[in-house]
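Feature request disguised as a bug: please show the residue count (174) next to PZP protein in the output. Example input:
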Amino acid sequence: KTEDKKLGGISIYVCVSLQGGVDNEVSLTAYITIALLEVSLPVTHSVVRNALFCLETAADQKENHVYTKALLAYAFALAGKMDKRKTLLDSLEKEAVKEDGSVHWQRPGKEPEVDLPYYRYRAPSAEVEMTAYVLLAYLTSQPAPSQEELSFASRIAKWISGQQNPNGGFSSTQ
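Example output, currently without the count:
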């Protein structure tokens, strides 16, 4: 499903199904802000500045979904707002699943993994996606990420690489 959004006179088409199961305005705003920052639109541009203001307000809400926090952390990292990034990463670290030397995030209320012989469990695409956003937030830092952040990021990368299928892809095209 696509939605037509107007952004400063520009029509933007957003694929809502790419929101990791989180369908809210904060996630949508974060997606668009990330896209604008990734194409090097400056944080001083009025559209980006206004979007970041909205995201900063939303980041202070305690009931944010883990997926939304991952998006927010990456958006703030791209914008150079390292204090907001760190606050979100600290919150996300408390919600992380840490096992076998790896780290990942999963949606609240998720069914436990099936433990079957000859079957290698792979996480749903939304969990791979949100974990990848957290990894991007850890690696996007000004100045460069600290040794501690890089060490933690390597544990995230370990989990993500373990989700690849035999052909090197993941469970979806996302």
